[in-house]
Amino acid sequence: MKRGAGPRRTSLFRKYFATLFAAVVAPLLIAGGSEAWLGYRDERARLNDILNAEARLAAVKIDDFLDGIREQLGWTVQLPWSEESGERHRLDALGLLRQVPAVESLTLVDAQGRERLFVSRIGLNRIDSRADLSLRPAVQGARANGAWFGPVRFQDGSEPFMMIAVAGNRSSVGVAIAEVNLKLIWEVISGIKVGRTGDAFVLDGPGRLIAHPDINLVLRADEAGQRPFQALRGAILDRPGEAATGRDVAGETVLAAMAPIPSVDWSVIVKQPLAEAFGPLYGALLRTAALLVGGALLAAGLAWWLAQRMIGPIRLLEDGVTRIGAGQFDHRIELKTGDEFERLASRFNEMAAELSLSQERSQRIDRLKRFLAPQVAELVDRTGDDSVLDGRRVELVVVFCDLRGFTAFSVRADTDTVIMVLRRYYEVLERAVNAYEGTLIRFSGDGAMVLLNAPVSIPDPALRAVAMAGDMQRDVQELLAGWRALEGRLGFGVGIAMGPATVGGIGSEGRLDYTAVGNVVNLASRLCDSAQDNQILVDIVAAQAIGAAIPLVALEALDIKGLDQPVPVFAVGTHGTQPAK
Question: What is the annotated localization of this protein (predicted)?
Fold first, then answer.
């Protein structure tokens, strides 16, 4: 008997161990190797695209910086030189120094190439010196091309400067020559970030550093300090169009890409530490390795355990199936057999769990169908917590909006047209509400009620309400432009009020609505009624919360039914239209 039992036990062990171990480990090995290779290739391609895009963007920003100076210079060469225009030229030049901090000095040259005005931040000003500058490269280059950008030079061996010259659109106007302090490009280059610690720097044609987030590296301007930057640019040039690896000035290995600034023959290089750039890939590889080890251990343990078990009673399986079929979804079939029956029992158990979850979800959805606010239903269904439906007192913003002249329109228009208009109108409102995380309580004919800051708290609900109302006005007015041919009196108004209110599920057991109750609801509704077409009215509480963030116009106080005193009212925008009485 023992000899007969032994081979069967060994056979079961070999079968389950080998099958399960191979079934788990082999796919993991294949998937892990594929993920490592494909992940590296995709991550390298993604980083190449990101760095090249960042480099091009940085080049555009610096080009815009220089182009802005060029345009400002263009304003100083609008008038021809005459005895009467000298003072006007001087005022224009001084104004340029105030408006463009990067300009260190400005020279204005007349049509004959003679210096007529020189103003400087640090030197003495000169008026009408008549020095002949016609042979200067700046004057000749500007006259030939309209604008001329000179080479970079380092004043006193540290600060980078360059000349920019702009010629007037007429030969009689002359040329403006500006000495520009490139140290101010630091503000542009410091704002460029790649990932958490990546940054950018700028090299001129000969490879000298002229802009870097660490301004000390630029001001030092020593030849030895330039070599790491030049070596990194050389590595990129060896692989045109691709991100290249190299070492930065700190000796850290980085991934870098470059974009040219053609107008001045500069190069913008953006870089990111290699460890940071490939950090997600390294994390994925570690997770894959852990998964391989864990999967191998799990497969070995599971195979050993299953090989020790015998086939369980079929009647236990039948009884379990009968109970599950009768609706006892919490029942589990306990079979420790190690063959097809245990796998079948596991499938039935999984099916029972899915049916249980499906039943719970169905019951929850049936309960949520009693509520009309889709945001509330989504929140409860997603979190499984319906405590947000309980009544509570909160500070919220209430928004009411409706169409003006819709009743007359609906009387004259046919039914299909009215339904089409309402459908498109509702779509516009719902899109705006969802974009600003509001809660759409209900549609009522051509009107709607929206809550912000309930049931879920959001920052700056008053600002969001006004922004949402602005989007509503814009989009609805676009719709009305096409509908006014059917009804010329169609319009759209919005009322916004802020204050405490009671929110929660209100109604009967068979039908509940998530809504708000309080004076703020009545006030918002009255403001909506008083708003004219293309007008957004705001109460004083919401106006105080908005502050100076959005322009508001104080209107005549409004008498509100149910309130003893007139209510201060504000309109969004710069017009002073009074609310309708």
Answer: Cell membrane
Q: Check if the beta carbon of residue 153 is closer than 8 Å to that of residue 104.
A: no
Tell me which residue has tokens 């149910």: 562
Q: Which helix (H) or strand (E) holds 448?
A: strand 447-452
Class of domain 51-277: alpha beta
How many other CB atoms sit within 10 Å of the CB of residue 460? Answer: 15
Contact 205, 265 (CB under 8 A): yes
For 98-109, the pLDDT digits (tens) are 888 888 888 888
548 CB-near residues (< 8 Å, 6+ apart): none
Round to whole Å and give the CA distance between 494 and 465.
10
Mean pLDDT, residues 126-133: 86
Two tokens, residue 59? 């080049």
Placement of tokens 């850290």 in the chain: 252
In angstroms, the CA 152 to CA 147 distance is: 16
- Per the structure block, which two tokens stand in for 12? 């079961």
Given 3.30.70.1230, 3.40.50.920, 1.20.1740.10, 3.30.160.140, which CATH number is that of 374-572? Answer: 3.30.70.1230
Torsion angle, alpha carbons of 290, 294, 297, 303, to 10: -140
ω into residue 579 within 30 of 0, thus cis? no
The alpha helices in 326-460, defined as continuous H runs, are 340-368, 374-383, 406-412, 415-435
d(CA 432, CA 427): 9
C-alpha span between 229 and 271 (Å, rounded): 11
Closest CA to 176 of 68, 112, 264, 93: 93
CB distance 120 to 108 below 8 Å = no
Per residue in 351-402, pLDDT tens?
A: 777 777 776 666 665 555 444 455 566 666 666 666 666 788 999 999 999 9
Q: At what angle do helices 374-383 and 340-368 cross, to 10 degrees?
A: 150
User: Domain locations in the chain?
Assistant: 51-277, 374-572
Which amino acid is it at 221? Answer: A
Contact assessment for residue 572 and residue 466, using Cβ atoms and an 8 Å cutoff? yes
Q: Are strands 115-120 and 439-444 parallel, antiparallel or unpaired?
A: unpaired
